[in-house]
Design a protein that fits this description.
The structure holds two protein chains of two kinds.
Chain A lengths: L4 H15 L13 E2 L7 E8 L5 E8 L5 E10 L5 E9 L4 E9 L2 E6 L9 E4 L11 E17 L5 E2 L6 H9 L16 E7 L2 E8 L5 E9 L4 E6 L1 E4 L23 H8 E10 L5 E7 L19 H7 L20 H5 L2 E8 L28 E5 L14 E9 L2 H4 E3 L6 E4 L2 E2 L1 E7 L4 E5 L1 E4 L1 E5 L16 E4 H7 L9
Chain B lengths: L2 H33 L7 E2 L1 H6 L2 H16 L2 H7 L2 H6 L2 H8 L4 E14 L2 E11 L6 E4 L2 E7 L2 E5 L3 H6 L1
Parallel strand pairs in B: 1-2
Antiparallel strand pairs in B: 2-3, 3-4, 3-5, 5-6
Helix pairs in contact in B: 3-4
The chains are: A mainly beta, B alpha+beta.
């Protein structure tokens, strides 16, 4: 045990100095954005699929050669994103964690021999989610808890531990922190120095808020037919997480990092997406739409989520995930909240010669409403364009492209920021859009292009009739430029 | 040629003819007997074994033996007519020719969707064509009977699950 007063005093003083930068400053250094370079402090693997001959491999890469990272991996079923399993992974600098999500005798299982896993070898089934819905497809999120650097051991912590940092050291450094541990430091430069014990020896380490060092890639694989569909994870940067994450406390976009779920959605928002397609006897195109921040699942284990799905089940075939929490909608318990999570959509379809179906009434505006279009309610939607939630949106063309305009429920698009007492609004939908082309000779999975969304930051807390806030105090910007040109700048920051 | 020699000659010819016919008979019987044997490449659970007829078992076994040998002409020949309509043999190989080698097949159960349409619930072990690792998978394998012959239906899992 290190109990040398001199060292303690030095550490305390050091810690104090490290904390000196503004605490919880909601400024340009710690506002979330979608990282165009694919490296951030949180990742979303948009879709995993298992079952039959399909399995999914995920990889989380620590691109840093300085920081060790502790991150929480969360598996969610694809209907309402209810959590089905979570655990921590421990990455030393330059480390990668790999796991397979497989069908193990008709149960979804996560297997890994990677030494970054919580136990090695890892082989664990997913749990039944709070709503009991099928989890053979879903999404995976990775939330970085903290970054660690400068591991030292020996007498008075004078000896630098060289890479690769032993996993046990990273685990012990994290596990030694109290459950309520929270860093009160500047996101970019701040850290806290801390002592901990590992294997009867004493060590020291610097602890940082989450750092933008994680990247990821997944592969949906069919070994039986030799198909591999790779897809990079979507990286969200500058979440600046300062709180210790726990396995017994659910981590979601509404309680992670230094941003509210509305800011996460504003960063992910797209006004419309573009999907080229082929659709004939030999070719099909599947839209793969992931809505990671839809949060239609209530918190597992809460009163709202008691596993009693019968009331909802008769009508909607959904569970009590529709009992949303933390929303502006009043607390009725009639399962209608699923509608309030629903994403409305409209499409324009074109063939290869710019033809598009004739509208009923091309002379007068507004155009008569189209037939009923069932909204998108699931967190992961995988739809053949020939049967897009009950509608053929290829317009009968065998080849062309589709502009798909999606709009999230208003109460998802307008809400408070985590700090500052401001409100953020976006148009469009917080979606990760990809599509699968099943062609005559091959299958590919690619990201869809999109129209950027407009984001408004305001002090006005109310809207009417689903319209954008009319009282704009400080910011109105298009989120792509914002993320590319000045990704860290948040209007209205103090 | 005198009559005893002629008689002997005729007797010898009849003997040879009978020998040939009887050998054919025994060979045919043996082959027939083999047809009724449990397939040798695939394993069948008792439930599945009870539900499948011999012709399906034989076709199934031949098909999966061909999968284990990556015998593409044989596999294509055993695909259902509509698969052959959709893909020429060249296209079929181009599209699926990277398939992993099947190490073992166990039929867990049989779902008779129709007298001429069957889904077999399988457990297969496949050697990954990419990593060389063995994967255990649990597909449903569809078979259809056309003009008295069982044909395999090659499915694309993503389309099968979501289309």
């Amino acid at each position: 045990m290190i109990r040398k007063l001199g060292l303690m005093a030095a550490l305390l003083a050091f810690t104090f100095v490290a904390m000196a930068p503004s605490a919880n400053a909601y400024n340009e250094a710690d506002h979330v954005y979608v990282a165009a370079n694919g490296v951030g402090d949180a990742l979303v693997f948009p879709t995993y699929i298992v079952g039959g001959t399909l399995k999914t491999t995920i990889r989380v890469i620590n691109t840093s050669n300085k920081y060790s990272v502790v991150a929480k991996v969360v598996f969610r079923e694809g209907h309402s994103c209810c959590e089905t399993r979570d655990f921590f992974i421990y990455l030393s600098p330059n480390d990668v964690w790999t796991a397979d999500i497989i069908d193990k005798n008709h149960k979804v299982a996560i297997v890994s021999n990677d030494d970054s896993s919580p136990i090695v070898p890892l082989e664990i089934n997913t749990a039944t989610s709070c709503n009991g819905l099928d989890d053979t497809h879903g999404m995976v999120e990775v939330y970085q808890a903290f970054a660690f650097a400068d591991f030292r051991g020996g007498e008075d912590c004078e000896d630098m531990i060289r890479t690769p940092i032993p996993k046990q050291l990273i685990k012990d450094a994290y596990n030694d922190l109290p459950d309520a541990f929270s860093l009160d430091v500047d996101c970019e430069y701040g850290y806290v120095s801390r002592e901990f014990e590992s294997g009867d020896k004493d060590y020291c380490v610097r602890i940082y808020t989450s750092k933008n060092v994680l990247a990821g890639v997944e592969e949906i694989i069919d070994p039986a037919s030799g198909m591999v569909l790779p897809q990079p994870a979507t990286a969200l940067a500058n979440n600046c997480n300062a709180d210790k994450l726990l396995v017994n406390l659910e981590t979601r976009w509404d309680n992670y990092g230094n941003n509210s779920e509305f800011e996460i959605r504003a960063a992910l928002a797209k006004e419309a997406i573009h999907i080229p397609f082929r659709s004939d006897s030999l070719n099909s195109t599947l839209a793969v739409l992931s809505f990671p921040a839809k949060l239609s699942c209530c918190v597992s284990g809460s009163d709202d989520c008691d596993g009693q799905v019968s009331t909802c089940d008769k009508v909607t075939r959904r569970g009590d995930e529709c009992l949303n929490n933390n929303s502006a909608v009043d607390g009725d318990y009639d399962c209608l909240h699923m509608k309030e999570h629903a994403t409305e959509w409209a499409n324009s379809s074109y063939d290869m010669k710019e033809n598009t179906p004739k509208r009923d009434d091309p002379v007068f505006s507004p155009v008569p409403p189209s037939g009923e279009r069932p909204p998108l309610v699931n967190c992961v939607e995988i739809l053949n364009l020939k049967n897009f939630n009950g509608v053929d949106i290829t317009a009968g063309y065998t080849e062309g492209w589709i502009r798909l305009a999606m709009t999230d429920a208003l109460y998802q698009r307008y809400g408070a920021t985590e700090q500052l007492g401001k409100y953020v609004y976006y148009n469009g939908s917080a979606v990760i859009p990809t599509y699968v082309e099943v062609g005559n000779s091959d299958i590919s999975w690619v990201g869809a292009s999109y129209d950027c969304a407009n984001v408004i930051v305001t002090t006005d807390a109310s809207t009417e009739n689903g319209e954008a806030p009319t009282f704009v105090e400080c910011g109105n910007f298009e989120n792509c430029s914002y993320q590319v040109i000045s990704p860290n700048m948040m209007p209205c920051s103090d | 040629m005198n009559s005893p020699r002629l008689f002997l000659h005729i007797f010898f010819c009849i003997f040879i003819l009978l020998a040939v016919l009887s050998s054919n008979f025994f060979l045919t019987s043996c082959t027939g007997k083999e047809d009724k044997q449990v397939p040798r490449f695939s394993s069948w659970s008792p439930e599945a074994d009870k539900k499948a007829d011999t012709s399906l078992k034989m076709a199934f076994d031949q098909y999966w033996l061909a999968r284990s040998n990556l015998d593409w002409p044989r596999l294509y020949a055993m695909e259902a007519p509509h698969i052959k309509w959709a893909y020429s043999e060249t296209d079929f190989f181009r599209k699926f020719g990277r398939a992993g080698k099947v190490i073992s097949v166990t039929v867990l159960d049989i779902d008779k969707l129709h007298p001429k349409v069957v889904d077999a619930k399988l457990k297969i072990v496949v050697k990954s064509p990419f990593t060389g690792k063995e994967d255990t998978l649990y597909p449903r394998d569809r078979w259809i009977k056309v003009d008295g012959t069982w044909y395999h239906v090659w499915k694309i899992p993503l389309l099968d699950k979501f289309a």
